[in-house]
Request: fold
Amino acid sequence: MEKVIFFCVFSCWIMQITSSDLSAGGSSDVRVRMGENITLNCNMRNRYEVAWYHLRSEELVLLISAEKDKLGRKLLIKFNLNSTRLEITADSWVTRVSLTISGVTESDSGHYFCGTKSDAPEMHFDKPIRLEIEDEVTVTERVLMFGGVGLAVFVFFLTTVIAGGIIYHRGQQKGWRAAKHEALMTHHS
Ligand SMILES: *[C@@H]1O[C@H](CO)[C@@H](O)[C@H](O)[C@H]1NC(C)=O
Ligand SMILES: *[C@@H]1O[C@H](CO)[C@@H](O)[C@H](O)[C@H]1NC(C)=O
Reply:
């Protein structure tokens, strides 16, 4: 029994490590609650064009694209999929651009790619950002999962204490019997 519970706790722990390793490897993770606004940053130093793509269910969608003006002090929007929800802003020398998505919904989850261009014709892509939308269900699930592990640890602790108690009790009984036996033996001799 203890072994089984211990194995479960251990494997849960391993599973948690592996899943966090996987997500940390190729992309950075961002978690937001449904309805919140999110800002994703991209480096645009020495680049002239920028485009944000959203990968969801194997479909790559261009969200927004922009290019620097002649002086390189402003971003000119070339394309915006939905200007009521998507906005791109930049610092004064346009070295860092930020995409803001307002009122995120479940369909905004997935990977975001920021592509930038300099004089060369090809686009350069940074590490993608994985956006995860949390609703109440995800939060509840996490509480339940955490509670499950906590419970397993508690049961493990409890069985150890009980088993320890039984062993101790048996030992005591054995001791009694041995003492009784010894007393009888000495009585007989
Ligand atoms: C743009 O976003 C708003 C708000 O979420 C939505 O109501 C509207 O349908 C969207 N428009 C397009 C063209 O997707
Ligand atoms: C989210 O963005 C919208 C539109 O840009 C704005 O009206 C709203 O105040 C923002 N909400 C928060 C919580 O920042």
In short: Confidence is low (pLDDT under 50) at residues 6-10, 12-24. The first helix runs from residue 2 to 26.
